[in-house]
């Protein structure tokens, strides 16, 4: 232990061992050093295979280490055995660093903030300063210690007189408010407290813009609505009508808004189905002042729409009144390799399917891996499920033979003993990833051995190769009979190749 740099007085170490006791009383031992040591372990009577672990700060120098028996003090019989003894420095892994710091990492020993922890830095902690209310500290990216908004960010205080010229906001006047916008720094001015000028020509708008949303403002333009003559009821209605220009004429009384009725003051009902008769002067009824607008004179606004049947008998001058969507039966899918036409009718209602686009009238043909077949020549393009197509070109990428190495090509020259690489030309590149696609076969029928007495040609058809071993079977002397009666087969004939006396025979002794 004297050589271990971590063994220092005050450092935390852990002792772990397996204990066996044949004693009939509990026994206590200490480690390390005299006076009871600093790691104390009590072994229960009769313990068998008991694993115990203790830890604490080092109390003795390494040259004074020992196990010391402590109690009971009276003499008792029995023995204690220890196995699997493990003595190791305390790991920082279980140390709880304070909030301003974090563990240094794994494999660090110690039991203190100084040994186990390192300062947390704003940039490393990825602290986000709330936009508009805080900005990053000037040293945020230059080693600023911190771990939250309070330690890493500088508050932005609301500027004075931010809303002095605002009609919908007024300064709060409070100190220490954070922000840079009227919403953060100012109070709302509400129309509920505003009084409209010229009551006969203006009326106050609803103080609520929508449910739960109060209308903001402090001017007539924001809080009031002009009273126009177009909204005034001239009475008696058979005698009086609105003056010309009532839409823009401000007022709310008969003298201001009304004249004796003429067609130029008569408003045709439903102005998409009726319009004023040009030149009509006197009148106060629809028949006197207005003419019909029929759908046969209307052009639908979009090519996906068509006129309803009998347009000459329908009143209207809008898509809603005169048009209906075209039927999918008249639509042609833009690309037959990417779309398949849907059924002309809806199955549930047995009515024509409406639509005038691929999305409405056609089903998508999504690229499937099965299209890229054979897989040795094609691979599917990257597809998140939206790539449309049904052809190799749309769905697949070619696999070229460029990087393929033919079997038996051991030196990378493109020529092996059974295959040799096909060569690309200026106009054609070979496609594939197998011997059959990228290489040309070398048949044994094209090869002849230089040692026909030692080899016999293989009889199987289509054998590949260009060597004796690939194309021939060995001729063994053990299968040969010496032609001369004066000769016999040489020893170990089954290990010798040949089919002649010279190769296989020796003179009889």
Assembly level: single chain
| Percentage beta strand | 15-25%
DSSP strand count: 32
Integer-rounded radius of gyration: 50 Å
Distance between the termini: 80 Å
Helix content: 10-25%
Q: In one word, what is the shape? A: flat
Mean of pLDDT: 86
Described by strand count, sense and barrel closure, the largest sheet is: 3 strands, antiparallel
List low-confidence stretches: none
Q: Looking across the biggest beta sheet, what order are the strands in?
A: 4-1-6
Class by helix and strand content?
alpha+beta
Number of helices: 13
Tell me what the structure shows:
Among the domains are: 12-119, no CATH class; 227-292, no CATH class; 295-325, no CATH class; 328-364, no CATH class; 445-474, no CATH class; 477-507, no CATH class. It contains 13 helices and 32 strands. A three-stranded antiparallel β-sheet has the order 4-1-6, with no helix packed on it. It has a three-stranded antiparallel β-sheet with strand order 3-2-5, with no helix packed on it. Strands 7-8 form a two-stranded antiparallel sheet. The model has no long low-confidence stretch (mean pLDDT 86).
Could you provide a short overview of the structure?
The chain is of the alpha+beta class and 509 residues long. Helix content is 10%, strand content 24%.
Draw up the topology in text:
Elements (H helix, E strand, L loop, with lengths): L11 E10 L5 E5 L7 E5 L4 E10 L9 E5 L8 E10 L11 E3 L9 H4 E3 L2 H4 L8 E3 L12 H4 E3 L13 E3 L10 H4 E3 L13 E3 L3 E3 L2 E2 L5 H4 E3 L13 E3 L11 H4 E3 L13 E3 L9 H4 E3 L12 E3 L11 H4 E3 L13 E3 L16 H4 E3 L13 E3 L11 H4 E3 L20 E3 L13 H4 E3 L13 E3 L10 H4 E3 L12 E3 L11 H4 E3 L2
Antiparallel strand pairs: 1-4, 1-6, 2-3, 2-5, 7-8, 9-10, 11-12, 13-16, 14-15, 17-18, 19-20, 21-22, 23-24, 25-26, 27-28, 29-30, 31-32
């Amino acid at each position: 232990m004297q050589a271990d740099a971590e063994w220092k007085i005050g450092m935390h170490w852990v002792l772990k061992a397996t204990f066996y006791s044949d004693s009939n009383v509990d026994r206590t031992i200490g480690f390390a050093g005299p006076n009871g040591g600093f790691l104390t372990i009590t072994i229960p009577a009769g313990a068998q295979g008991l694993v115990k672990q203790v830890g604490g700060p080092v109390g003795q120098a390494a040259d004074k280490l020992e196990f010391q028996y402590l109690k009971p003090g009276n003499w008792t019989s029995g023995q204690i055995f220890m196995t699997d003894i493990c003595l190791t420095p305390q790991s920082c892994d279980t140390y709880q660093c304070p909030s301003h710091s974090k563990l240094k990492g794994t494999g660090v020993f110690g039991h203190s903030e100084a040994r186990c922890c390192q300062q947390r830095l704003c940039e490393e902690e990825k602290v986000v300063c709330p936009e508009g209310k805080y900005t990053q500290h000037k040293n945020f990216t230059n080693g600023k210690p911190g771990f939250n908004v309070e330690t890493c960010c500088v508050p932005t205080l609301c500027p004075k007189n931010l809303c002095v010229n605002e009609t919908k906001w007024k300064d709060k006047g409070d100190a220490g408010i954070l922000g840079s916008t009227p919403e953060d720094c100012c109070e709302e001015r509400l129309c509920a407290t505003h009084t409209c000028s010229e009551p006969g020509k203006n009326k106050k708008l609803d103080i609520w813009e929508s449910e739960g949303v109060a209308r903001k403002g402090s001017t007539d333009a924001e809080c009031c609505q002009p009273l126009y003559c177009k909204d005034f009821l001239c009475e008696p209605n058979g005698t009086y009508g609105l003056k010309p220009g009532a839409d823009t004429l401000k007022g709310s009384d008969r003298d201001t808004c009304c004249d004796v009725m003429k067609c130029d003051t008569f408003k045709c009902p439903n102005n998409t189905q009726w319009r004023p008769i040009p030149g009509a002067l006197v009148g106060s009824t629809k028949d006197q002042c207005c003419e019909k607008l029929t759908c046969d004179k209307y052009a639908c606004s979009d090519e996906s729409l068509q006129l309803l049947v009998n347009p000459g008998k329908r009143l209207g001058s809008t898509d809603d009144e005169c048009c209906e969507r075209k039927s999918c039966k008249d639509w042609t899918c833009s690309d037959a390799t990417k779309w398949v036409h849907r059924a002309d009718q809806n199955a549930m209602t047995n009515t024509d399917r409406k639509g005038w686009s691929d999305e409405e009238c056609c089903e998508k043909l999504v690229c499937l891996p099965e299209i890229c077949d054979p897989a040795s020549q094609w691979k599917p393009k990257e597809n998140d499920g939206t790539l449309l197509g049904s052809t190799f070109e749309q769905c697949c990428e070619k696999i070229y033979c460029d990087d393929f190495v033919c079997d038996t090509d051991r030196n990378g020259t493109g020529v092996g003993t059974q295959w040799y690489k096909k060569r690309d030309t200026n106009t054609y590149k070979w496609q594939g990833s197998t011997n059959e696609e990228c290489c040309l076969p070398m048949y044994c029928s094209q090869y002849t051995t230089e040692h026909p007495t030692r080899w016999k040609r293989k009889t199987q058809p289509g054998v590949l190769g260009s060597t004796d071993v690939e194309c021939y079977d060995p001729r063994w002397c053990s299968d040969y009979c010496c032609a001369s009666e004066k000769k016999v087969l040489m020893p170990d004939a089954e290990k010798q190749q040949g089919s002649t006396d010279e190769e296989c025979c020796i003179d009889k002794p």
